[in-house]
Amino acid sequence: MRVPLSWLADYVDLDLTPEALADRLTLLGMEVKAIERWGSDWRSVVVGELVAVDPHPNSERLSLARVNVGDGTLREIVCGATNIATGQRVPVALPGAVLPGGRRIERAEKLGVVSDGMLCSGDELRLTTDAEGILILPADAPIGRPLADLFGDVVLDVDVKPNRGDALSLVGLAREVAAVTGARVRLPRAEVAEEGPPVEERLRVEIEEPGLCPRFVGRWVDGVRVGPSPDRVQMRLLAAGMRPVSNVVDASNYVMLELGKPIHTFDAAAVEGGRIVVRRARPGETLETLDHEERILDPETLLIADPRGPLAIAGVMGGAASEVSEATRSVIIESAIFDPVSIRRTAFRYALRSEASLRFEKGQEFGLAPLGADRTAHLIVAWAGGTVARGRVDTNPREPEPVRIPFRPARVNRLLGTALSGAEQRELLARVGVETEPARGEVRVPVARGERPHDVVAAGEEAIVAVAPPWRRDLAIEADIAEEIARIRGYERIGGTRPDTPMPAYRRSPLGVRDAVRTALVGAGLAEVVTHALVAPEELEAYRLRRPVPSLDDPEPVATPIRVTNPLSSLHSVLRQTLLPSLTGVVLLNLRRGRPGVAIFEIGKGYGRGPEGPVEWWRLGIALAGAATPPSPLLPRRSFDLDDAKGLVEHVAAALGFAEPRFTAEADEPLFHPGRTARLEARLAADAAAIGLVGIVGELHPARLEALEIRDRLVLAELAVRGLGEGWLEPPKVAAPPRHPTVERDLAVVVGETVPAARVAETIRSSAGPLLRRLQLFDVYRGAPLGEGERSLAYRLTFWAEGRTLTEEEVEAVVAAVTGALEREVGGRLRS
Amino acid sequence: MSIDLAGLTRQLELLRDEILAAAAAAPDLASLERLQIDVLGRKGRLTAVLRGIGSLPADDRPKVGAVANAVRAAIEAAVAERREALRAEAIATRIASERVDVTLPGRPVPRGSRHPIPETIAAIAEVFGQFGFVVYEGPEVETDVHNFQMLNIPLDHPARDLWDTLYVDLDGYLLRTHTSPGQIRVMARERPPIRALLPGRCFRYEAVDASHGFEFFQVEGLMIDEGTSMADLRGLLDEFAGALFGAGRATRFRPGYYPFTEPSVAFDVRCVVCDGAGCPACSRTGWMTILGAGMVHPVVLQYGGLDPERYQGFAFGMGVERIANLRHAVADLRYYLENDLRFLEQFR
Fold first, then answer.
1. How many Cβ atoms sit within 10 Å of the Cβ of residue A397?
2. Judging by beta carbons within 10 Å of its beta carbon (0-12, 13-18, 19+), is residue A301 exposed, middle or buried?
C-alpha cells in the first residue's frame, strides 16, 4: 500500500519525521518497505505568474507568455498549450531544470523567439494525467516557490499483511499511527445533501444470494458532469499508485484508498429500470468487462445484473456497457459486502485480481457499506456536481454485534513470557480501539477457532472480555489478543530468557551418513554440488537407466515422473529421477568456462509418482571429467577415467565400514560405454548378508560424448547408500594387530583376457580359507612370454594365524590349494 | 733375529706413524675400516709386531705392553677421528647434492569443497544442537493439507498469496513452499517436550533474481512444551544470532505475520555490511531480517494432536541462502545452484 503522507495527514496528525514514522510503523508490524520522495525529480521548477499571454509573432499555434517567477525580471516563454491566460499561476521549468525521466530544459530558440524556460503540464511533472494543458496552480500559490515545496510529498510503501485488510486504507493506517502517537483519528466527511427524489423511486436492489452478498448499499446521483478530477485529487491518486480516470470513477477509487471500501459506479442509464439483481451467472451468459474482454461466465460467478442480463462481475470487475463515461448523467453507487472466498475464487478464475478484489477477499467491515456509499456521493457532488437521491438502498441495515473475546491475562503472560497486570493489558488494548469489560461470572475463552473450536471455561475473576472494534476482523482468539498486547507494547520489550523446560530425549541426526560421505569425498578432492531438483523432461528421458539403481532402505524408484502443472519454464518442469543429468550439466558448465578438470558429487533425491502417491529416494552421484591432476611439475598429467570413479566408490565404501565393492560388467545401458561400465555392490563389513552400497559406475557412451563436445571422458556414478536418507555409522569393531609374524606370498596368475579379475580374486579367496587375511592385486601384465589373449594378474597374499606363528608347510598347503583351484575354475596357471 | 726392547718399541712407533698417516689419508669409510682391521684385527700388523714380545726379558714385557697400548689407542683415536671427518664430509656432500629450490610449490594434494548450502545447514544445526534441538526431515512433494490447511491456511485463504506455489500432476499434492509442514509431522510423531530442527529443499513459483529462486532451502525450528514462551524465543534467537554473527551483534524483534503463528515475529540483526549506517544491502534500514518466527498457532497445535491449552511453543523458519549470504559475503543467491567451481572451491 502506497501512502502519501500529505494525504494520511488528513486523518491523523503526523508529528514525526517520515523516517521516524516509518520506523514506528515497522515496529508495529506495518513494515515500511521504502520511503519515496515525491517531487525529488523536479529540479528548478518554480511557481510563476502569467503576466501576459500574447500570440507568438511567427506562429498561429504557439503563444508567447511573459512570466514572473519572483526574481524581478519578466521571462519570455514560448508555449503550445491553449488553456493559459493572463493572471494564472503555473509551474515554470527554468533553464537548467530537470523533469521526471531526466528531461533537461534549456534556453532555446523557437521560431525566432528565445524561450527562457518552459511551462509544464501535469503529465510532464507526473503530477496529473493531463498532457494537453498547462497545470494551473491555485491562485494563492506563492510566486517563485519551488514546486517541490508545494506539491512534493513523501510516500511510504507499507507491506500490509494479509490478515489486516482493514489497514489497506489510509484510515486504517491512521489508526495504527494513532496507536503509536496517541493522536485522534479523523474520519472523512460523508454528509450528503440529499436534494433528489427518494432513492426507492429510482433504484431497487434484489439479492438472490444473501450468503454471497450479505449487504448491498446503493445511492443514486442525478445530473453529474463527468470530466477530469481536480488536480489535487489526481495528484493524490497518482502518488498512491492509481491512474486518474474521471471525477466519478476517481471518487470511487479515492474512497477505496481512503476507507479500504471498494465502490463501483454504474451509468444509471445502462441499468434497465433502475433494477439491480445480485445473482449467480446462468449457463451460457457472457459479459464484456471494462477491459473489453468478452467473458464467458461460470455459474459460480456472482453477478450484479439488471433484468436484461449481467452488468458486472461482483467485486471483481465492472462491465463495459454500464461504465461511467462522459455521456453519463446519472450514477448508481454500489457499496456492497461480498463473501471473501467467492470473490477470491472468481478473481482467480478470470485472472482478474484487482485492488478491489484484494480488499474484498480479506473481508470487509459491515459498517463500511453505508459509509462508503455516502462518502462517494459526497465526493461526486463535490467534484462532478449533481443531486443525490434521498436515502440509501440498504439490503441489510442491521449492524452485527461486536465480537467479544474473553481472555486471561495470566495466559497472555504465559505465552509472551511477560508479567503484565490486567490493567496494563487493558490499557494497551485500548490504544488500538479494543475496548474491554469485566467478565461477569464464568466465561468461555476462545483458545482455537476453525474446524475444531476449542474453548476453555474461566472464572470471571481471572478473565477480561475484549470487544474487538468492527474493523478488526482478524481478532478471534485469546492468542490474537496476546499479539495485540505484545505489538502495542512493543516486541522489543519482550526480554530474552533461556528456556528452562525439560529436555527432549536424544535422537540421532538423520544426516550422519550424508556427513560421512561428504567428508570422505571432499577429502578425496571432490567438490560438492547442489543442483535443481526440477529438470527438463528431455533430460530426464535422456538419462533414464534401463535398470534403475535399486534402493536399499528408501522406497524403490518409480519410473513415472512427477510433473509440475504450472512450471516457470519447461527447463524446470519435472522432478528428476537420477542425479546424472544435473551433474552432467555442472560438468559441461565448468568445462565450457575453461576448467581443465571437474570432479564433483551430489547427495540428492530422485522423485517419482507411485501408485500410492509421491515417492522420494536418496542417491549419491559422482561425475569426473577432464584433467585428473592439477598442473604441477610434480605430478604426471592424466585425465579422469573409470578407475578413478571406482577408486572413489571403494573409498566411500571403506569410509562407511562396508566391504570392498564387487564390480560386474554392465554392457546394456545405452547411456554408458558398453565396455567401461560396471554395476557394483558392497556388503556391510559386519554383516555379509546386508548390502551397504549398490549402483552403477561408468563412462558416458562415446556417441554421447561427441554430442556434448566433451573431448576425453565423462565418468558418472549413481549409487544408493544404506542410511543416506536417515542413518548413522556404527563405530567399527576392530581386532588387535597380529602379535605373530605375518607371511606374504606373491602369486602371478596367468588367465585368459576374458576372465574377469573379480572371478580370479574370488577363486583365491574361497580356496585359501581363513588364514588368508588380505589379498591385493599389485600388477597386471600382458605380452611376452605370455601367449596371445592372456594376461597375468599378480596378487600379494598375506597370511596370519591367531596366537601362533604359521609354519612354512601350512602356507605352502594353502598356496597349493589356491593353485589347484585357479587351474580348475578359471583355467589359470602360476607364472614363475 | 733377536729383538730388544728398544727395537720393538721402535717398530711399534714406526707402525704407529705409518698408520696414523694412512688413516689421515683414507679416502672413504670402507678403506678406513680395512685399514683398522689390517692393523688392529686379530691377525693384524700390531698383533704381528707384538709376537716378538716373547723373546724379551720378562722385565721388559710390561714396558712393551704399555707402549703397545699407547700405540693402539693412538691408532684407534686417529681412525675414529678420520671416521668422523669422513662422515661429516659425506653428509656435507649429500646436503650439497640434495639442495632444492624450497620456494617451489609443494606436491598438490587433491582439495575438495563442501557446498555452502549443506555446510550452512550443518552450522545452524550445530548451534541449535547445543540447545537440544534434533534434526528431522519431511517430504518435498507435500500434501496441500500439510503445507497449508493444517498450518491454518484454508483453501481460498488470502494468506495463500504469501506463497506462490508450484503444483504437480498428483491430486492434492504440491511442491512444499516451506519447511513448516514438518511442524505437523514432528508433532504427530513426538510428544512434548519437542525441540526439532527441519532443514530441506523448498519450491516456489518465483522468477529467479539475485534474491529469489524457484528452488531454495530452509531450516525450520520447533520447540513445544507447557511453558515455552515468546521471551524464550527471543532468548534463543539472540543466542543464535550471536553464534553466527558474533556475540555483540544487535538484534531486533518486530511483529510479522504468518497464519501458523500467533503472535508472529520478524527477527532482524544489525546489518552485517554497514553495521547500521544504512546501505543498499539492508535497504538503508540498518537491519537485516534473517528469519520469521512466532508462537505456534493453537489451530496448528490441534492439527499436531496437541492440546492448545496445555501446550505452547514457538516455531521459526529461515532461508539457508540468506544465512549463507551473510556468513560468506555472497550477494547473489543464483551462485548456489549454478555450481561454478570457481565459486564453490572457496568453501572448505
1. 11
2. buried
The CATH superfamily label for domain A512-721 reads: Bira Bifunctional Protein; Domain 2 (3.30.930.10)
DSSP for residue B198: E
Residue A176, pLDDT above cutoff 60? yes
Contact between residue A43 and residue A92 where contact means Cβ atoms under 8 Å apart: no
User: Hey, of B140, B164, B223, B230, which one would you mutate to test binding to chain A, going by the most A CBs within 10 A of its CB?
Assistant: B230
The DSSP call for residue A461 is G
B residues 303-322 closer than 8 Å to A (CB): 308-309, 312
User: Strands A294-296 and A309-313, how do they pair?
Assistant: unpaired
C-alpha triplet A396, A398, A404: angle, nearest 5°: 130
A501–B297 C-beta distance less than 8 A: no
**Top-tier CATH class for A2-39+155-181:** alpha beta
- How many whole angstroms from its chain centre is CA A711? 41
Return the residue matching grid coordinates 718399541.
Answer: B9
Average pLDDT over residues A21-37: 93
- CATH number, span A404-490: 3.30.56.10
- pLDDT value for A802: 87
**A324 band by pLDDT with thresholds 50, 70 and 90:** very high
Domain A194-394 CATH (choose: 3.40.50.620, 3.50.40.10, 3.40.50.720, 3.30.300.30): 3.50.40.10
Task: Grade residue B2 by pLDDT with cuts at 50, 70 and 90.
Answer: low
Residue-level pLDDT at A745: 95
Chain CA centroid to CA A157, Å: 19
Superfamily name with CATH number, domain B117-344 = Bira Bifunctional Protein; Domain 2 (3.30.930.10)
Domain boundaries, given as residue ranges, for chain A? 2-39+155-181, 43-151, 194-394, 404-490, 512-721, 743-830
Is there a contact between A632 and B344 if contact means CB atoms under 8 Å apart? no
In the chain, the amino acid numbered A338 is: F
Residue A130's pLDDT band (cuts 50, 70, 90): confident
How far is the C-alpha of B304 from the C-alpha of B322, rounded, in Å? Answer: 29
Average pLDDT over residues A164-169: 96
Q: Kind of pairing, strands A597-610 and A527-528?
A: parallel
Residue B58 banded pLDDT, cuts 50, 70, 90:
confident
Spatial contact of A623 and A527, defined as CB atoms under 8 Å apart: no
**Domain residue limits, chain B:** 5-98, 117-344
